[in-house]
Amino acid sequence: MNLPESPASVVGLIADPGTADAIAQRVAPRVERALGTAHPGAGAWDVRVAPFSLPLGDSGTVDLRDKVPQLREKHGWDYIIYLTDAPHYVRQQPVRSVIAADTASAVLSLPSLGLARTRAVAIALVEVIGELATGRQPAGPLTPWGRALSVHHSGLYDESGKGRISSITGLRGRLLLIAGMVRSNRPWKLVPRLTSAMAGAVATGAFGVFYTSIWSMADYLSVHRLSLITLASITILTLWLLLHNRLWESPKGGRRRERLLVYNAATVLTVGYAAAAMYLLMFLALLGASLIVIDQQYLAYQLRHEVNFSDYVNLAWLASSLGTMGGAIGSSFDDVAEVQRATFSQREYERRNMDLNITTGEDESD
């Protein structure tokens, strides 16, 4: 006699649009297999990714708890997990996950996982779902050294004792959070938006490539001096983009100083990454142009010595630095709202444009 199979436990994965949704799509099959291995006695598992996201609450974070009854009634999910690519703060602490055992739901903040590789996200999801299914918290590091290196701290977040947060602690935890925010912002998508900056940079750089005085200067400058000029030009463009496009943030509410540092460090790195990428693209373009247009013998005649590939590299190097400075001025013609939208993930863009005069009771003076 064949016994009827036990019904599968259904996990609903909801995610913020963009990076979080893409990760959810990739990680769902891996989580399904890992749950079957980690909890073989629980029957089959079915992990489903929902094609929608939830709105932000007044505090700038997703409030999943209030939406759980409607979601469960509509979809019939046993467990509901929300993946967000925005930093999540509870009781003035940046957190990795918020687990509500009474509603069998949880929120997982992807930036807290650093670069949030698929394997790391899958492990975190298996731990969260396993705790909801069994009521047992995942085992922490067993050795003193492992505990010292851990960036997570667990604690209750409501009076009922049915909810738990895993907060981020220490400098290493903050660095992981910043790295995760930069990844969620996807800085590479900012470069195509800087059309005016790129046009100004290329025009200035091209002038430098074909201006013989720049040839002599590039030939004379040392590698260290050229490196300093490169760093200065990228810094100038980064600062110009930050200030002109009003990307600097002044958070209100609890842990204001920490959030000021974390949020703006992520923004600076995002914009700096885009500026460096623009510099590299321009360098390659100008190097190719100089190799095609400037005859080697003519360049040797102007420099009064034999030339090789390194002389063309130095020329394109200096011209790119000058062009990047010109690009800072050109960026003034780019649309501010478009640059802001391209700089941040959709959730971060929404949060930054909300009125965050916090009214949730989480405020404290610094």
What does this protein look like?
A hairpin with a 2-residue loop joins strand 4 and strand 5. Strands 1, 2, 3, 4, 5, 6, 7 and 8 form an eight-stranded mixed beta sheet that branches. Helix 6 (195-209) crosses helix 9, helix 6 (195-209) runs antiparallel to helix 11 (309-330) and helix 7 crosses helix 11. With 366 residues, this protein is α/β, with parallel strands linked by helices. The radius of gyration is 26 Å and the shape is elongated. It is built from 13 helices and eight strands.
Topology, pairings included?
Elements: E1 9-15, H1 19-38, E2 45-49, H2 68-75, E3 79-84, E4 88-90, E5 93-100, E6 105-109, H3 118-134, H4 144-149, E7 152-156, E8 163-168, H5 170-185, H6 195-209, H7 212-220, H8 223-244, H9 256-293, H10 296-303, H11 309-330, H12 336-343, H13 346-352
Parallel strand pairs: 1-2, 1-3, 3-6
Antiparallel strand pairs: 4-5, 5-6, 5-8, 7-8
Helix pairs in contact: 1-3, 5-9, 6-9, 6-11, 7-11, 8-9, 8-11, 9-11
